[in-house]
Write a structure and sequence with these properties.
mainly alpha, four-stranded mixed beta sheet, Serine Threonine Protein Phosphatase 5, Tetratricopeptide repeat, 21 helices
Length: 467
């Protein structure tokens, strides 16, 4: 509304000015090249404005004609760019869906239309990986490392390809170079796994701290990894440096309360050096929050030399801290069986085999042992053995589909730290051999990997030694 008012006022002022100009007496005379032109003031001003308007129109027409070729070229460039980005989009979708032929075709079109676009090289590398052309993939990733904006992405691709061909040194080189540019999580994790595989636990601890400082790891994950590394160090130092081993194991327990491998390592050191009371107290403390069969085995090891009756009494004291845990009932049943107290063993397992419950394989085998010890080979023994063959499997240490009898600090398949979890294994799980190698079919280890699949690794010497 205010603008309209100002516009009306301005229009009135212009009209008033023109009126004054028209009413003014006088004329304008121009002598030029022997010609004389005379006109009144209003006519002269009007002619000047017309000349100015004509000049502006002619200038605009000339400039439009001059710019027309450039506009045609620009339109063509925009069309090529749009087609190139459409090819990139279609190619990345093809990579995601596993269509190698379509991805390769889209990469070719994108490279022709957008040769300098960073995503073009990325699509080309992904298409090569999908088609199984490792040589082209590595060449493309190497080209990406020559440009600052794609160097990290190229190093990541080279790192993956190096791990796929089991070249640990090259993989470490690329990860180290990437980590020097920016503390990206994958590079920090790769460096950590390399140091762990080499058994350089001190540098592994430093790598964890560096990743935490760079915020590539969250505090809880860093604490868990510290506990794993310190437990591995404690296991290595148990015999030659027991005091250091005990300190490391206890430190791991502080970082990760209830971590059974750390508690077992600490208890072993205490028992080996005659401090059995402290070992038992340590296990009892951890058992109250997180009972575990490995803790039970360490507890019985600490009771070596005592009678079966004394062992049973101590175990019953231990399990009072977690009386309803299956691990507690299994431990009481095992010790009662060794004491030939079949009634107590049966009572311990009764809640696990009650009606409506689904006892695990270990529970069924213990019940078969109880029946065999109490009554000899009989129908109930065969019945429990048959149930055990169909029963749910008990938790084990498992990582990347590989089962180990004992905890290991890293996966024997991928080299990942803190990979082993205590959980029931799937039917396809493989067991470690006596040499600590995973008993995995060769076809599984050599199957073609997808572009985003993690690479395979070797078993560390430390893992084999622990096994």
């Amino acid at each position: 509304m205010l603008f309209l008012l100002f516009f009306i006022i301005a229009l009135a002022a212009v009209a008033y000015g023109l009126e004054l100009l028209i009413e003014q007496p006088g004329s304008l005379t121009l002598d030029f090249a022997g010609y004389q032109f005379e006109a009144s003031i209003p006519v002269a001003v009007g002619g000047l404005l017309l000349i100015l308007a004509a000049t502006i129109v002619i200038w605009a027409i000339v400039m439009a004609l001059l710019r027309m070729p450039g506009r045609w070229t620009g339109d063509s460039r925009l069309k090529r760019r749009d087609k190139g980005f459409d090819a990139l989009s279609q190619g990345l979708i093809a990579v995601g869906t596993g269509d190698a032929a379509r991805a390769k075709k889209a990469a070719h079109v994108a490279e022709r239309l957008l040769p300098n676009e960073p995503l073009t090289q990325f699509l080309k590398a992904q298409a090569a990986q999908l088609a199984g052309d490792r040589r082209l993939a590595e060449e493309t990733f190497h080209k990406m490392t020559l440009k600052p904006e794609t160097k990290l992405l190229g190093l990541r691709g080279l790192h993956i390809e190096a791990r796929r061909r089991d070249d640990a040194d090259a993989a470490h080189h690329f990860a180290k170079e990437a980590h020097a540019i920016a503390p990206v999580p994958w590079a920090g994790s790769a460096m950590l796994e390399h140091l762990a595989a080499q058994g350089d636990w001190e540098k592994a601890r430093e790598a964890i701290e560096a990743s935490l400082a760079a915020k590539a790891l969250d505090p809880q994950t860093a604490q868990n990894l510290h506990a794993v590394v310190e437990t591995a160090m404690a296991m290595e130092k148990e015999r030659d440096h027991p005091h250091d081993a005990l300190h490391l194991a206890r430190q791991a327990l502080k970082r990760r309360p209830g971590f059974a491998p750390a508690a077992v390592a600490a208890a072993r050191v205490l028992v080996r050096h005659g401090d059995r009371k402290q070992a038992l107290k340590l296990i009892e403390t951890v058992w109250a929050t997180k009972p575990h069969p490995d803790l039970g085995a360490a507890y019985l090891e600490a009771l070596t030399g005592e009678s079966n009756a004394a062992k049973l009494a101590r175990v019953e004291k231990l399990v009072r801290a977690a009386p309803h845990a299956p691990e507690s009932r299994h431990l009481v049943a095992e010790v009662a069986l060794s004491n030939r107290n079949f009634a107590k063993a049966r009572d311990a397992l009764a809640p696990l085999v009650a009606g409506g419950r689904h006892p695990t394989a270990h529970t069924c085998l213990l019940m078969a042992e109880i029946e065999d010890g109490a009554h000899g080979p009989s129908g109930p023994v065969r019945e429990w053995l048959a149930r055990g063959s169909r029963a749910p499997r008990d938790p084990v240490w498992i990582a990347d589909g590989v089962v180990s009898k004992t905890w290991l600090p890293m996966s024997p398949v991928t080299g990942r730290l803190d990979a082993f979890e205590w959980k029931p294994p799937p039917d396809s799980a493989q067991h470690l051999t006596e040499e600590g190698k995973p008993n995995i079919p060769a076809a599984f280890l050599t199957s073609p990997a997808e572009p985003v699949a993690p690479p395979s690794g070797e078993v560390s010497q430390e893992a084999s030694a622990d096994q």
